[in-house]
Write a structure and sequence with these properties.
By secondary structure, the protein is of the alpha/beta class. It contains 12 helices and 13 strands. The chain is 40% helix and 14% strand. The protein is globular and about 60 Å long.
């Protein structure tokens, strides 16, 4: 099997709309990519500095301290007690894990990789890398034979959809029928809104989902958004010990090692909830002011019950809405980047400074008022 032709990188298509937004008299407000803008917590930077003397090669699986922190965090914050070090592994960010797992599991021609109907493109690219067939679908009953790997993403990117216990259990049951590995990408699990601000968003490793059996089940997560560590490439996986050991062999051969100072930062960040709560409050405030402004401008917001994005539509195709936002100097993300099911939506990120969010609110509110006045 040789690597086939890859699709163009989708974000390159946004360039003319970015240029249009930047030509706005007050400049552009970028609410597209979702890259954190707030400072990396000092407690984490201190840990990085303290471990800067990193002359030896780091371990691929991760230090005992980092993996213990993952174990403790799952028990404390995710409602998943009982994990041990062998049930965990660090990864170089979560994107590389998503992109390489199908290949490292030796999937290929004739195998199917399932991912959500509205999905971050890397799930599909992982299937392409392996030479497998991708299948976009949310209904477990429609997942075909011979599915070998299933990706869930709850809370979802781009749409913020949360899968409850019953939905996760149905997905796991179907994976077992198919004999497939199932992985939930849980990067946004500590960023719940509305009802999910009061109730913990369930993990796929929850006993109510698995019945206490983690065979062929993994959860992956990241510190990029929780702790503003996107530049550190700090992430981790937990679940089936045998499956992790299997993936670890391939990852050792590939040299996929998290740098030693970053491993220390992982241990520190996951052990400190104070900074994560402070960051949550920043995003909560931004969401509370941006959401009504988008609605006033005419966007219907769907799902968006968790995560860092607002998933909206005016009934037009993505590019029409993106163009209208660019006229206001606002850069959004086209929903079509996340599959055909998103072709009439746009993704609006909360990862901008308070001042930038307030400026976007001002522009949206003024535009909404102008449109109302014209309608009169």
């Amino acid at each position: 099997m040789t690597l086939g032709e890859l699709p163009d990188y989708p974000w390159d298509q946004l360039t003319p709309f970015i240029e249009r937004a930047r030509s706005h008299r007050d400049g552009a407000v970028d609410l597209s990519i979702g890259s954190p803008v707030d400072p990396t917590p000092e407690v984490v930077r201190h840990a990085l500095r303290e471990h800067a003397d990193a002359h030896a090669y780091p371990t691929t699986i991760g230090t005992p301290q980092a993996r213990d922190a993952v174990v403790d965090w799952f028990a404390r914050s995710r409602g998943v007690p009982g994990l041990a070090r062998g049930n965990t592994m660090l990864t170089v960010g979560s994107k590389e894990f998503v992109a390489t797992t199908a290949f490292f599991l030796r999937l290929g021609e004739g195998d199917t990789v399932v991912y959500p109907a509205r999905a971050y493109p890397t799930y599909e690219i992982g299937a392409v890398f392996a030479g497998a067939t991708g299948f976009a679908g949310d209904d477990p009953a429609e997942w075909p034979e011979p599915t070998r790997l299933i990706w869930l993403n709850s809370p979802g990117n781009p749409d913020g959809r949360v899968l409850g216990i019953d939905e996760l259990r149905a997905a796991v049951d179907r994976a077992r029928e198919l004999g497939a590995v199932i992985v939930n990408d849980e990067c946004y699990a500590e960023l719940g809104w509305g009802e999910w601000a009061k109730e913990s968003i369930p993990s796929i490793l929850d006993e109510r989902v698995t019945g206490g059996d983690w065979t062929n089940i993994l959860a992956c997560s990241s510190l990029s958004k929780r702790s503003n560590l996107a530049g550190y490439r700090a992430a981790y996986v937990a679940g089936d010990e045998a499956l992790i050991a299997r993936l670890l062999v391939a990852r050792k051969h590939a040299g996929l090692m998290v740098p030693a100072p970053v491993q220390a930062a992982v241990a520190t960040a996951l052990s400190d909830d104070k900074h994560a709560h402070e960051q949550y409050e920043r995003y909560r405030r931004r969401r509370e002011v941006l959401l009504p402004a988008l609605r006033a401008w005419g966007l219907r917001i769907d799902h968006s019950e968790a995560g860092l994005y607002l998933w909206g539509t005016r009934g037009d195709d993505s590019w029409t809405t993106i163009a209208e936002l660019a006229e206001l100097g606002i850069i959004g993300g086209p929903g079509v980047f996340y599959g055909d099911a998103g072709a009439r939506h746009v993704r609006i990120s909360l990862t901008a400074t308070d001042a930038q969010i307030d400026e976007a609110v001002r522009r949206l509110t003024e535009a909404a008022g102008d449109r109302y006045a014209q309608a009169q």
